[in-house]
């Protein structure tokens, strides 16, 4: 079974590797690139811990082959803070105690990045529906919802200042 | 969990994909969204030797109104359908269905063509397509053919597609004025397959009579079920409480559920009855605008 050469831009940097076609994107990120912020939870596309952005869209990296990401841009949790500044979502999870063990957090944040990108002013229902593919076994989701609301408010305020 | 090894092919045209299929036949599987195929490969329920990834073929993802139909390219993602103003306006039943499939991340990748071609009776689109009287278009070495969805689901995980054929488009007749539809799904949690699901579509004329009815059932048999007796019971009726109750009973009778972790056979059949009535009520409310 032939290997394939893939070039994948991860957090702005392009990486070229020869990989087996069966290599999953999450393993490419964690094992080939040592980006272990993306977690493997259920490994069956239920829990969302492995969520990353593929060309801006949130996907479960345990259910995508690395070869499918060839030529595309991937953003992981390591890529959301800019210039040493936490992303408003990361800040929100910190401020609102949106995590306990933290295992689901990278996936929650990556999912919420796309959610707020598409819907900058979500209702609580929009947020709960929006993170329905991400499981948290610690928090009961209440503070996760608050963290995302915090980020939405902050991002909207920042946008208002820029405008 | 890691899939068994395979060779990966990325055709850039349908012709190229078709010749790969002719070469590898049953040893090949087509990859579009991969949200059903990859889990099956990781669990080693499927070990194809060749994966033919259609994502590099341009022109297979679109939603358009044409010749009295809504035509949807097979590689259109669930998320794209969810955001489609055309679907929301003309086919609210399809909008209902998409929102209940898996979760947002899976819907960013999963495709309508894959949902149908997989032939899983637990998938949600088949029931809706049965209710809407849709047809699929497949291309093969001998050209293109249209297959009514009523003839598409032949057995458990088995469709009318030949091994060397590719599903390229789904064609849904535009419902006439006075139509409405709804899809309801009972699930244990978000992202689960249906304990039972019901798609109902009705057309009502100016006198209040039902002129057309379509009812499809999800995950209550080894194939998606078209509840033809229930549909016939509604046609020509005024859709009274009695009409709906009797149609719901006929839909339940048409189901062949098996007992499993989601519930007993008896329970599932009872849920088909309840959901059929509720889906019809919502469909009628939408038809009456």
Structure description:
- The complex is a heterodimer of chains A (163) and B (289).
- Chain A has 163 residues and is α+β, with helices and mostly antiparallel strands.
- Chain A has 2 domains: 4-79, Beta-grasp domain (Ubiquitin-like (UB roll)); 88-162, DNA polymerase, domain 1 (Orthogonal Bundle), CATH 1.10.150.120.
- Chain A contains 5 helices and 5 strands; from the N terminus they run E-E-H-E-E-E-H-H-H-H.
- Chain A has helices spanning 25-32, 88-95, 105-118, 124-130, 142-162, and strands at 4-10, 13-19, 51-54, 57-60, 73-75.
- Chain A has a 5-stranded mixed sheet, with helices on both faces.
- In chain A, helix 2 (88-95) crosses helix 5 (142-162).
- Chain A is globular and about 50 Å long.
- Chain B has 3 domains: 7-52, Uridine Diphospho-n-acetylenolpyruvylglucosamine Reductase, domain 2, CATH 3.30.43; 63-173, Uridine Diphospho-n-acetylenolpyruvylglucosamine Reductase, domain 3, CATH 3.30.465.10; 179-287, 2-Layer Sandwich (Enolase-like, domain 1).
- In chain B, strand 2, helix 2 (37-42) and strand 3 (50-53) form a beta-alpha-beta unit.
- With 289 residues, chain B is α+β, with helices and mostly antiparallel strands.
- In chain B, the strands form 4 sheets. Chain B has a 5-stranded antiparallel sheet with strand order 4-5-10-6-7. A 4-stranded antiparallel sheet of chain B has the order 11-12-13-14, with helices on both faces. A 3-stranded parallel sheet of chain B has the order 1-3-2, covered by helices on one side.
- Chain B has 11 helices and 14 strands.
- The longest helix of chain B has 23 residues, at 265-287.
- In chain B, helix 9 (228-234) runs antiparallel to helix 10 and helix 10 packs across helix 11 (265-287).
- The A-B interface holds A 1-2, 4, 20-24, 27, 43-46, 48, 51, 54, 57-60, 63-65, 67-68, 111, 114-115, 130, 132-134 and B 1-8, 31, 34-35, 38-39, 41-42, 51, 53, 55, 79, 102-106, 108-109, 190-191.
């Amino acid at each position: 079974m032939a290997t394939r050469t893939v070039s994948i831009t991860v957090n702005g940097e392009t990486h070229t590797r020869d990989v087996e076609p069966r290599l999953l994107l999450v393993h490419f990120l964690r094992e080939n690139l040592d980006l272990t912020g993306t977690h493997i939870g259920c490994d069956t596309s239920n829990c969302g811990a492995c969520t990353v952005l593929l060309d801006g869209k949130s996907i479960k990296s345990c259910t995508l082959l690395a070869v499918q990401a060839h030529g595309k841009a991937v953003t992981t949790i390591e890529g959301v803070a800019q210039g040493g500044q936490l992303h408003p979502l990361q800040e929100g999870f910190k401020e609102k105690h949106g995590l306990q063990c933290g295992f689901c957090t990278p996936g929650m944040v990556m999912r919420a990045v796309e959610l707020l990108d598409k819907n900058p002013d979500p209702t609580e229902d929009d947020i709960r529906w929006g993170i329905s593919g991400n499981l948290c076994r610690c928090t009961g989701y209440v503070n996760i919802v608050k963290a995302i609301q915090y980020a939405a408010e902050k991002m909207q305020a920042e946008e208002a200042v820029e405008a | 969990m890691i899939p068994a090894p395979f060779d990966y092919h990325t055709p850039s045209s349908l012709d190229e994909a078709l010749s790969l299929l002719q070469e590898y036949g049953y040893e090949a599987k087509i990859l579009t969204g991969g949200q059903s195929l990859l889990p099956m490969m990781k669990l080693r329920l499927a070990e194809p030797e060749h994966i033919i990834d259609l994502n590099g073929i341009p022109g297979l993802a679109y939603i358009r109104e044409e010749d009295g139909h809504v035509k949807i390219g097979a590689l259109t993602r669930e998320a794209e359908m969810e955001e489609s103003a055309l679907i929301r306006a003309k086919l609210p039943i399809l909008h209902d269905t998409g929102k209940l499939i898996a979760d947002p991340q899976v819907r960013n990748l999963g495709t309508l063509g894959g949902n149908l071609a997989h032939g899983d009776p637990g998938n949600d689109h088949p029931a809706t397509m049965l209710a809407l009287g849709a047809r699929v278009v497949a291309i093969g070495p001998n050209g293109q053919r249209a297959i009514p969805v009523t003839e598409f689901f032949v057995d458990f995980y088995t469709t009318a597609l030949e091994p060397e054929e590719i599903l390229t488009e789904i064609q849904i007749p535009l419902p006439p004025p006075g139509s409405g539809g709804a899809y309801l799904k009972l699930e244990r949690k978000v992202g689960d397959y249906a304990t039972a699901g019901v798609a109902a579509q009705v057309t009502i004329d100016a006198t209040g009579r039902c002129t057309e009815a379509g009812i499809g059932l999800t995950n209550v048999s080894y194939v998606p079920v078209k509840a033809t007796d229930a549909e016939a019971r509604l046609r020509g009726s005024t859709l009274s409480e009695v009409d709906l109750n009797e149609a719901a009973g006929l839909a339940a009778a048409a189901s062949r559920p098996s007992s499993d972790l989601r519930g007993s056979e008896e329970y599932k059949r009872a849920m088909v009855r309840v959901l059929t009535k509720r889906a019809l009520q919502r469909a009628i409310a939408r038809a009456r605008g």
